[in-house]
Design brief:
Layout (H helix, E strand, L loop, with lengths): L5 H6 L7 H12 L5 H17 L6 E2 L27 E2 L4 E2 L4 H11 L3 E5 L2 H15 L4 E5 L5 E2 L3 E2 H8 L2 E5 L7 H10 L3 E6 L15 H10 L4 E6 L6 H6 L11 H6 L4 E5 L10 E5 L1 H9 L3 H4 L3 H15 L7 H7 L2 H13 L6 E8 L9 E10 H4 L2 H6 L5 E2 L1 E3 L2 E4 L9 H9 L2
Parallel strand pairs: 1-15, 5-8, 5-9, 9-10, 10-11
Antiparallel strand pairs: 2-3, 4-12, 6-7, 11-12, 13-14, 14-17, 16-17
Helix pairs in contact: 2-3, 4-13, 5-6, 5-11
Length: about 425
């Protein structure tokens, strides 16, 4: 059986992986005592597989605007990575208050007393509960059964609460929770807080009832307890913008500002959902509570890097400047049907590959607004005819991720940038 050396195996296939990685892969293959031809084949297979797992830019043609597996909200990153005054006072020329400008800007946007930033919204809830358990001597969390959620990546709300050492008190039923349910639980658990949670990835309809933040605030005040709202999705946009753009999907979706106005002591939400920025958790509300969270010993282990806070700052400024359409998520969503149709037609004219334009739906996704379907025209390619087309798209220098439907590959341009159209056209013309 003809053999091949490690160096010869590495030299046999040109790729972009570091040589040390290639050597390790080659050594692992040759340890199986394979012949030359089989080793060459397996080396190519493993290198290609490993290369596809590298984090890289992709073009989102799935039509899901906040695609969790593709990083949720897309952002035009602008942070250089150079030294930054994240915790340095340029005026006093000494150590300053971390995120001072971002905090002030976000408070103006949300009309909140104070705000702090952590690496995701799961840690927002964990840190808030931990800090309040320690500082306010709280030992129980009261929540409606219809809001005990599980989201992607095996995040289960009861397990987060369990990790804090606090008692989870479920009230009501899956479909109906009344004010009296909260009151009964508060009488039995005086050292508690009330938690309301956004149903991020499912909805209830039919014979259902829940208690609003406004009504929960009255109950919380009656029993002198705190009201925490895990809003999750993070809608902060001005309603006037939605009206102007004829976007009605959020008419019944509570905004962060509305939650605070209705009486929530603390509202927490994700930075990479409807806020349209980068992965982070934003905690806003009572200055007293935010101060306790910031002083909690574990806060530093969850706080954001300068890259994250810079991007949050940029997005906040766009909201305050009424430049919402410069935020990619809101740009995608506010694209009119006519604009999208014209774009799809333009791309279609430049594609030589057999295809069709069909009617379909885009989604918001990302654990936000699960029932919303956005009518969109899409480009459809029959995968039965072109066989391995999807695999080829994923192996491009800039991979293109479409969706599939009934053996067709669907390219939904609503979730991709206009400047990506040339890449999509070139890719389809080479299939």
């Amino acid at each position: 059986m003809e053999k091949i050396s490690v160096n010869a195996l590495v030299a046999s296939y040109k790729n972009q992986l570091p040589r040390e990685i290639q050597l390790e892969i080659a050594k692992s293959i040759l340890a199986e005592s394979l012949g030359k031809d089989e080793a060459l084949r397996k080396f190519v297979e493993k290198i290609d597989s490993f290369s596809l797992s590298r984090q890289k830019r992709v073009i989102n043609c799935t039509g899901t605007l906040l695609h969790t597996n593709l990083g949720r909200a897309q952002s035009r990153m602008s942070f250089s990575g150079h030294a930054t005054n994240v915790e340095y006072d340029l005026e006093k020329q000494e150590r300053g208050i971390r995120n001072n400008y971002l905090t002030s800007s976000m408070n103006i946007l949300l009309n909140s007393e104070d705000v702090c930033f952590v690496n995701n919204n799961a840690s927002s809830l964990f840190l808030t509960l931990q800090a309040l358990k320690k500082e306010n001597k709280i030992d129980a969390v009261i929540i409606s059964r219809g809001e005990i959620i599980e989201i992607g990546g095996s995040y289960r709300l009861p397990e987060i609460i369990q990790e804090t050492g606090m008692k989870l008190v479920e009230v009501g039923t899956t479909n109906k929770t009344h004010p009296k349910d909260y009151k009964k639980a508060l009488k039995e658990n005086p050292n508690s807080l009330v938690l309301k949670v956004h149903r991020s990835n499912f909805s209830l309809s039919g014979f259902v009832e829940e208690v609003s933040i406004k009504k929960l605030k009255i109950i919380a005040d009656e029993f002198n307890v705190l009201l925490i709202h895990d809003l999750g999705s993070g809608l902060v946009i001005d309603r006037k913008f939605l009206e102007k753009q004829n976007i009605s999907y959020f008419d019944k979706e509570m905004s962060v500002q509305e939650s605070l106005e209705d009486g929530a002591d603390i509202v927490m939400f994700s930075g990479d959902k409807l806020f349209g920025s980068i992965q982070s958790g934003i905690i806003a509300g009572s200055e007293d509570i935010i101060t306790k969270i910031k002083k909690y010993p574990l806060f530093r282990t969850f706080r954001c890097s300068p890259v994250i806070t810079y991007e949050l700052q940029k997005t906040t400024e766009l909201y305050l400047s009424k430049e919402e359409k410069s935020i990619p998520f809101w740009s995608f969503l506010s694209t009119s049907r006519q604009e999208l149709d014209e774009r799809v037609q333009n791309v279609s004219k430049q594609i030589t590959l057999e295809h069709s334009i069909v009617e379909d739906f885009s989604l918001i996704g990302g654990g936000s607004m699960p029932d919303v379907k956005i009518p969109s025209s899409v480009i459809s390619v029959n995968d039965k005819v072109y066989g391995e087309a999807q695999d080829m798209l994923l192996k491009l220098e800039i991979p293109i991720v479409p969706r599939t439907k009934e053996n067709n590959i669907i390219f939904d341009l609503r979730s991709s940038f206009v400047e990506d159209d040339i890449h999509i056209i070139n890719a389809l013309n080479t299939l």
